[in-house]
Design goal:
Chain lengths: 178, 571
C-alpha cells in the first residue's frame, strides 16, 4: 500500500454525477476526479470515484460484469498500457487540489488494459478496464468505495484528465435467488 | 347450434361481452365471470365445477372448488383486453380438451402465477406473460412449436429472483419443443423492446428444463440456471439482445448441463457463462460486438467440456474467458476463437486447451491466448495459433505450458504479426517445446518470441492436425458404454449398440460427418440396465439419405458421459 501526498492537482476538473440505467445496467460517470502529482517515475495517475447509489438493492444481487471505459483522443501513436488501482482511504478532489489531502491506494492493479498501435489503427482507441471484482467488493460492503486510480505511462496528466471526462463505469448486475 | 359445440369466448365486463345461450345438452365445467347469471341466459349451468373470477368476485358460482386465479387464464386487469375461452366438454369441438391440457388454443392470452396442473401450450399459441409464471415442483409445462410468449415489463407480483421484472420460473419441469421452422419465441411485449425488459427463463433447484429450438430475446439472462438444475439442456436456440448473459449456468456440482448448437448474438454482456461442474458447451456459434464482455465465460471445473464452438468478434473483450478456480482442468477442444481482443483469456486454472485430433483455431485476435496471473497455467496442445497480433502472451506471473519434454506442444504459430510468444513476466522462462513456427530454410531457431521462452525441440514441419469433433470421456456414473455399431460399413442404416450398468438414464445420440457438422440428432432413449440398440436410418435432419462417407456417432449417457464410434456409410 502506498500513501501519496498530493502537492498539486494538475488540470483539476470536476465531473458532475451522471448516471443512467436500463433495467439492470448502471452507467455512471465519475463523481469526483483529480490528477495526482507525478512521483517522478514517469507514471501518470488519476484518481476517480463513482457514486453507486443507483445500484438497485435486493437479496441475491450479483455483479455480472463491470468495467471502466473511455475513448482516447489525441493521445499520439504507440502502444499504451493502463491499470486500475483500488483507492483505500477517503479523499476529496478539493483537498487534493488544494494540497491539503492525499490519496492512498493499493499498488497491486485490479486490472490492466493493453492498447496496441495495431488496435488503435483497426478499432479506434477504447480503453476498458475490468472492474468486476472492485465493484463487487464495493457493492457487498466488503471494502469501501473510495474509487480507483488510473495509471499510464504514455499519456500526460492533463491529457488523461481530459479524456476521462467521458469515462463511464458500466455495471451489469442481476438478482439470483432469494 | 348443436349441443356441446359452443366455443364462444367472452367475459362479462369486457367490450365484446355477450349473453350466451347454452345449447341443449352442453356440459359446462369452467368459466370466467363476475356474475354467472349475466353470462348465461338460462342461468348458471349445474355442471359448472370451476370458476375463474373476474375481479375476484365469487358471485354466482356455486361450486365448492373455486379458483380465484387460474395461472394460465387471466382477466383484463391493467387495461388489457380480456378474451377468454369458455370451455365446454365436448369431443366434437376443436378446442374442447380436458381442463388444463391445452392452453392458448383459442382466446387465452395471458399467463401469470403458479401452475396448478401439468399443462401444454398448444402449437402457434400466443401468450402474454403478465407477471411471473412459475412451474412448481412436480408440475410439467410443455410448450409446443410456434408458441410466442411476450412478457410484460413490470412484475406486479414482486416475486421471483427479480422482483421488478417478470420471469418464467422453473421449479418443476419445462419442455420447450420448438422446431427449426417453428421455434418457440420468448420476448418482450414492448413496441420498442430493449435488453432487460424481462428477466428470462429461471431454472431453480432440482428443476429440469429442456429448451430446444427457441428464440429468446430482450431478457436480462435468456436462460438462467442458478442452482442445481437437473439435466438442463439448451439446444438449437437463438439468443439475442439479452442484457447480462444469454445463458448462464452456475452453482451445480451434480447434474449434467448441456448447452449445444445454439446461435448467440451477444449484446452488452456475456454470451454463455458456465460455472457448473458438469457442463458441456458444444457446437454453439457466438457472435459478439464492441459492447460485449465475453463470448464464453468459464469458471473452471475439472469435468467441463467446451468443444466445437465458434466464438468471434469480441473486439473489446475475450472470446473465451477462463478463470475463478486454480488447478481446475476444463477441456477446451475443437473450437474457433477469432477476431477478438483476446481469443482466450486465462486468469486462473490449468485449462487443457487443445488435444491431438481436437484442434482449436485461434486467429485474428489482438492476443491469441492471454495468460494473466500466477494461477494462469493453461496447457496448450495442438492449437493453430495464427494470424494474431501476438500469439501467446503471459504476464503477472502466468506460466502457460506450451510444451514440455515428453509432452511437446505441437502447436502451430504462423503469421502472428508482432510475436508468436511474448513472455512479459519479470522473471522465469516459459516452456514452449516442440511447436511449429513456420518453414524456414535450414529450420533455424525461431525468432518470433520476446522474453525468456524455451522453444527447444521446435518442429521443422507442421504437426499433423485433424479435428475430430468427438469429446473424450467424462465421468460415467451410470456405467454407460458403447459396444459398437452394426452393420459397419452400412448401406441404409445401422444400429448403435450400448450397455448400461447403472440405473435408468437418458441416452442422446448425435451423428456428425467427417467435417464435424451435425448431421442428425436421434430421438433420445430412456434406458435401464442391460444392452440396448438405437437405430439410425442413414438420413439427415431433413430426411435426406446421407452420402457415402465416414460418420461419427456421439452418444451421451445421463447428459454427461460422452463416447463415440465411427461408421462408414456406403451407398
Amino acid at each position: 500500500m502506498k500513501a501519496t501526498t498530493i502537492l498539486l492537482a494538475v488540470g483539476m476538473f470536476l465531473v458532475l454525477v451522471a448516471s443512467s440505467s436500463t433495467a439492470d445496467v448502471l452507467r455512471v460517470s465519475p463523481s469526483q476526479a483529480a490528477v495526482l502529482q507525478s512521483s517522478g517515475d514517469g507514471v501518470t495517475r488519476l484518481a476517480l470515484q463513482f457514486d453507486l447509489s443507483g445500484l438497485r438493492s435486493g437479496a441475491g444481487r450479483k455483479i455480472v460484469w463491470a468495467y471502466l471505459e473511455w475513448t482516447i483522443t489525441s493521445a499520439g501513436t504507440g502502444d499504451k498500457t493502463f491499470a486500475a488501482l483500488p483507492i483505500t482511504t477517503s479523499w476529496t478532489a478539493s483537498q487534493v487540489n488544494s494540497r491539503t489531502g492525499s490519496v492512498t491506494y493499493s499498488e497491486t492493479p485490479a486490472s490492466d488494459w493493453d492498447l496496441t498501435q495495431d488496435e488503435q489503427d483497426r478499432l479506434g482507441c477504447v480503453v476498458r478496464l475490468n472492474a468486476k471484482d472492485l465493484v463487487s467488493s464495493w457493492a457487498s460492503g466488503l471494502t469501501s468505495n473510495y474509487g480507483l486510480v488510473v495509471t499510464t505511462r504514455e499519456i500526460s496528466g492533463n491529457t488523461l484528465a481530459g479524456q476521462l471526462e467521458n469515462a463511464q463505469l458500466v455495471v451489469g448486475y442481476g438478482f439470483y435467488g432469494q | 347450434m348443436a349441443g356441446g359445440a359452443l366455443s364462444y369466448s367472452t367475459v362479462d365486463g369486457a367490450s365484446d361481452y355477450a349473453t350466451i345461450g347454452l345449447p341443449s345438452g352442453s356440459t359446462v365445467t369452467q368459466s370466467i365471470f363476475s356474475n354467472c347469471s349475466t353470462v348465461f341466459s338460462s342461468g348458471c349451468p349445474t355442471t359448472l365445477t370451476k370458476c375463474i373470477f373476474y375481479n375476484y368476485s365469487t358471485a354466482g358460482c356455486d361450486v365448492s372448488t373455486q379458483l380465484s386465479d387460474d395461472p394460465l387464464y387471466c382477466n383484463s386487469r391493467e387495461g388489457l383486453p380480456g378474451k377468454y375461452t369458455l370451455r365446454i366438454d365436448s369431443p366434437a369441438a376443436k378446442y374442447n380438451n380436458t381442463w388444463g391440457v391445452q392452453i392458448g388454443a383459442k382466446g387465452v392470452e395471458c399467463a401469470w402465477g403458479s401452475l396448478v396442473r401439468d399443462a401444454v401450450v398448444d402449437v402457434d399459441a400466443s401468450v402474454f406473460g403478465l407477471e411471473d409464471v412459475t412451474i412448481p415442483t412436480g408440475k410439467i409445462l410443455t410448450v409446443k412449436e410456434g408458441v410466442t410468449f411476450k412478457w410484460d415489463d413490470d412484475d406486479n407480483s414482486a416475486g421471483g429472483d427479480d422482483t421488478v421484472e417478470n420471469e418464467l420460473i422453473v421449479c418443476g419441469k419445462l419442455r420447450m419443443n420448438g422446431t427449426s421452422s417453428k421455434p418457440v419465441t420468448l420476448t418482450s411485449s414492448k413496441t420498442t423492446p430493449a435488453e432487460g425488459d424481462w428477466t428470462g427463463v429461471v431454472v431453480t433447484s432440482n428443476a429440469a428444463a429442456k429448451i430446444d429450438h427457441a428464440m429468446i430475446k430482450y431478457a436480462e439472462d435468456g436462460v438462467r440456471a442458478v442452482y442445481t438444475a437437473d439435466s438442463t439442456t439448451v439446444s438449437n436456440c437463438t439468443l439475442l439482445s439479452n442484457q447480462l448473459d444469454d445463458v448462464t449456468v452456475a452453482g451445480d456440482t451434480t447434474h449434467a448441463v448441456s448447452i449445444s448448437s445454439n446461435t448467440v448474438t451477444v449484446g452488452s454482456g456475456i454470451g454463455i457463462s458456465v460455472s457448473a461442474a458438469r457442463a458441456t458447451v458444444s457446437g454453439n456459434t457466438v457472435t459478439c460486438n464492441s459492447s460485449s464482455v465475453y463470448g464464453l465465460e468459464l469458471a473452471a471445473q475439472d469435468s467441463q467440456m467446451v468443444s466445437a464452438n465458434t466464438v468471434q468478434s469480441a473486439s473489446l473483450g475475450s472470446a473465451l474467458w477462463v478463470g475463478s478456480n486454480a488447478n481446475k482442468t476444463p477441456a477446451v477442444q475443437s473450437n474457433s476463437f477469432i477476431n477478438s481482443k483476446n481469443g482466450i483469456q486465462c486468469v486462473n486454472s490449468k485449462a487443457r486447451i487443445g488435444a491431438s485430433s481436437h484442434v482449436n483455431t485461434i486467429t485474428g485476435n489482438t492476443v491469441g491466448v492471454l495468460a494473466d496471473g500466477a494461477n494462469a497455467i493453461p496447457a496448450l496442445r495442438y492449437n493453430n495459433i495464427s494470424s494474431n497480433t501476438t500469439g501467446v502472451s503471459a504476464k503477472s506471473g502466468a506460466n502457460p505450458d506450451m510444451g514440455i519434454t515428453g509432452n511437446l506442444g505441437n502447436n502451430k504459430f504462423l503469421s502472428n504479426s508482432t510475436y508468436c510468444i511474448n513472455n512479459r513476466n519479470t522473471s522465469g522462462t516459459l516452456s514452449a517445446k516442440g511447436n511449429y513456427f513456420g518453414t524456414v530454410s535450414g529450420c533455424p531457431v525461431p525468432a518470433c518470441f520476446l522474453g525468456s521462452v524455451d522453444v527447444s525441440s521446435w518442429l521443422c514441419t507442421a504437426p499433423f492436425m485433424v479435428d475430430v469433433p468427438i469429446s473424450p470421456l467424462p465421468p460415467n456414473p451410470q456405467g454407460f458404454r458403447l459396444l459398437g455399431v452394426r452393420p459397419n460399413p452400412a448401406k441404409s442404416g445401422a444400429n448403435l449398440q450400448f450397455a448400461l450398468q447403472g440405473g435408468r438414464t437418458d441416452i442422446q445420440v448425435e451423428v456428425f460427418d467427417l467435417a464435424g457438422r451435425l448431421v442428425r440428432r436421434l430421438d433420445p432413449m430412456n434406458a435401464g440396465i442391460g444392452n440396448h440398440e438405437l437405430f439410425w436410418d442413414g438420413r439427415d435432419e431433413r430426411g435426406t439419405p446421407v452420402q457415402t462417407g465416414v460418420y461419427f456417432f456421439r452418444a451421451t449417457g445421463n447428459g454427461i458421459s460422452q463416447q463415440s464410434v465411427k461408421l462408414l456409410v456406403v451407398r
